[in-house]
Amino acid sequence: MPRAPLLGCIADDFTGATDLASQLVSAGMRVVQTIGVPDGPLDAECDAVVVSLKSRTVPAAEAVGQSLAALEWLRRQGCGRFFFKYCSTFDSTPTGNIGPVADALMDALGADFTLAVPSLPANRRTVYNGYLFAGDVLLNESGMQDHPLTPMRDAFLPRVLAPQTRRRVGLVSHHALADGAAGVRARIAELKREGVGIAVCDTLGHDDLVRIARGSADLTLLTGGSGLGLTIPATLPGFEPRSDAAHLDPVGGHALVVAGSCSRATLAQIEHAGTRMPAMAVDIEALFHDADDHVDALVAFAAGHLGDGPVLIHASMAPERLRAVQSRFGTAASGEAVERALAAVARRLVDDRGVRRILVAGGETSGAVVGALGVSGLRIGPAIDPGVPWTQSVGTAAPLALALKSGNFGGADIMTRAFELLP
User: Fold this and answer.
1) Rounded to whole angstroms, how far apart are CA atoms 224 and 85?
2) DSSP string spanning 169-238?
3) For residue 20, what is the domain's CATH number?
4) How many domains are contained in the chain?
5) 164 and 230 co-located in one domain
6) Cβ pair 294, 302 in contact under 8 A
7) For 193-224, how does the pLDDT look when each residue is reduced to its tens digit (9 = 90+)?
């Protein structure tokens, strides 16, 4: 009988799920990522399962419902330790959903304490004295203040989290981490005596993540970004790293890049890729005038250039242009129109034009694309950049190689270099 997974993870969007899964694979775990909560039992032996949801920006009650359904399924698969993964920029709606989901998971598990560790030092997301930094600047000065769905205008995470949770929020500062895992354990004990239920953790580098994982090894539930995915595995009883954890079978076929993110990182990546591959931008006005006709035009453009290498179809735009579009058509309506169009383009190029290798930029866009392609799960392979792995589809008629990239992740050349790394 296959061994039950050692770790069950719940991620609030698709790219965040692949980010976490990639970190776990780097630590030697065999990982399966599901697209939503499966209807039946897990049909593959693995060390960790990551359930990817689309719950970051939905109403809090809906996010809680999805997350509890994922937890129930993971418990049925035999998981005994759990991780709630959200973005390293800690972004959600002003009233959630990080706090409400963490509360619900803690209640369901009977947990009286957990940590919030959003840091991802490899991508320069760090926390000091409770303040989240993106690179060398505070989060609210990094461009995240202009995020179209989850603008972050406060970098002090205890203050951001406090209104979202019923529990008292505390801080595990870098002073506690200086004493290693023992310092983390001592600080957790102190916070619990004070009635704290959730504590934000300072994290400046990988060594801090090691100390946090070791010092919290007896907690049933942890929450945070993907950085802990590198250090949690070593604390799981019975885990042995595998050298073949990242193996994927080669996938042939044409290559496509689809981008819906408007982050600074994605805009720079599109600028780089646009000089090296055929590229066409989505016309938002055309989508609202005649979406089917514009999708036809996007498909025709891509189909005419697939023989030349990767083709880029994108709806990314600078913040000022984005604000104008949202003002005219509405934030939700414009976002949904773009997601539907990009998903339709990807589906038609896969079904009719032999596209088998796709890089998608943006969490919402990734969710729409994998849904349109009928992907039920992903096998996680090697990393392209920190937090961005190649994956192989489960549930599709033919295997697809998919890289689902958070808008903020990846180097400027990732859209070209990714396909050079793919067997």
Assistant:
1) 5
2) EEEE-HHHHTTHHHHHHHHHHHHHHTTEEEEEE-B-SHHHHHHHHHHTTT-SEEEE-GGGGGTSGGGSTT
3) 3.40.50.10840
4) 2
5) yes
6) no
7) 999 999 999 999 999 999 999 999 999 999 99
